[in-house]
Amino acid sequence: MECLVSFFEYRKRVEYFGLYVYLDKDEKVQPVFQQLRESLSLALGVPVLLAWGPRSLDSYGYLLRVGAPGGLQMLITGDSQGDVAIPGTNYSFGQLYRALALGQFEALSAAPGLALRLHLASVSAASLAQLQNLIQQALRRTTA
Predict the structure, then answer these.
(1) Positive or negative, the Cα torsion across 68, 106, 36, 81?
(2) What is the tens place of the pLDDT at every residue in 85-94?
(3) For a designed S-S bond to 112, which of 70, 79, 97, 98 qualifies (C-beta 3.0 to 4.6 A apart)?
(4) Number of domains in the chain
(5) What is the CATH number of the domain that holds 139?
(6) Is 93:84 a contact under the CB 8 Å cutoff?
(7) What is each CA distance from 68 to 17, 65, 107, 112, in whole angstroms?
(8) Model confidence, pTM
(9) Which of 121, 118, 23, 12 shows the shortest CA–CA distance to 71?
(10) 47: domain range?
């Protein structure tokens, strides 16, 4: 909790908040992060970019350029429920997806601003609700 409060306090030094979600964009997950985006924007007073998966780096790579405005970057990852081996390799699609997420986190960490990665052990309704609750509590303590 204290880590999130400190992270959100950094908002006074940045121009935007990047929320990068490396979870399946399904009917259970998407509304949670749309709501989080709105809550973060209202509470922090900065625009919030919501981007999904590894394609977000290609789409928003300009935010990592030298001289780009600094931002708060939060990357959300989670364990995949099903995983499939990639034919002809010794790794799976889940491992590749995790490697892409870690690579993006490293790039975000090297950019101006501050980056934080949160990993969900499961992507159940309960864990999503717990994540929402944790962020809301930290936001309340930040904006108080």
Answers:
(1) positive
(2) 899 999 988 8
(3) 70
(4) 1
(5) 3.40.50.10490
(6) yes
(7) 13, 5, 13, 8
(8) 0.86
(9) 12
(10) 2-143
